[in-house]
Amino acid sequence: MAKQKRIKQPSINKSSRITTTNPPDYDEKPPLFSLEKVVGDKYCFTKLSDEDKKQFAESIYKRKDTKWKDIKNLPKHGLGTEKIPKNQIKGSIPSYITEDMSDFLVFRFNGKKPMVGYREKNIFYVLWFDSDFTLYEH
């Protein structure tokens, strides 16, 4: 009868422990603004005036240290945000926006001029810059 080979068991370091981490609380983080998904139509970043572009940069800079949980409590015409029902948008809605998304978020970037988009984790994806107040009923 042939002798069976024994498989050597890996040594276990008793000092190493498996730790679990909780997923991050994105409400405790400031928003990151992304222009990756801006719709390329009349509400595009490229259609903004130089002053609007400057004010957009200022507006995201002002929010750089403000947590999402605090933004929710700030005035909507200030550094805060508001929700706009998806069915109020008059512009073309990208095909990747699913039916279960019922609202968009709005931030102001120059006075009351809104930028409209959506949030994933701590990222705000801007879809439209409504510099002429025609994207939805104001």
What does this structure look like?
By secondary structure, the chain is α+β, with helices and mostly antiparallel strands. The chain has one domain (28-129). It is built from two helices and five strands, in the order E-H-H-E-E-E-E. It has a five-stranded mixed β-sheet. It is elongated.
List the helices and strands and how they pair.
Elements: E1 32-34, H1 50-62, H2 68-71, E2 81-85, E3 103-110, E4 113-120, E5 123-129
In short:
The chain contains two helices and five strands. The chain has 138 residues and is an alpha+beta fold. The protein has one domain (28-129).
Task: Please tell me what the overall shape is.
Answer: elongated
Count of individual beta strands: 5
By secondary-structure content and strand pairing, the structural class works out as alpha+beta
Low-confidence stretches: none
Largest sheet: spatial strand order: 1-5-4-3-2
Percentage beta strand: 15-25%
Mean pLDDT: 90
Largest pleated sheet: 5 strands, mixed
Number of self-contained structural domains: 1
Distance between the termini: 88 Å
Q: Count of helical segments? A: 2
Helicity level: 10-25%
Pattern of helices and strands: EHHEEEE
The gyration radius over C-alpha positions equals 23 Å
Give short descriptive properties of this protein.
alpha+beta; single chain; 138 residues; 22% strand; 2 helices
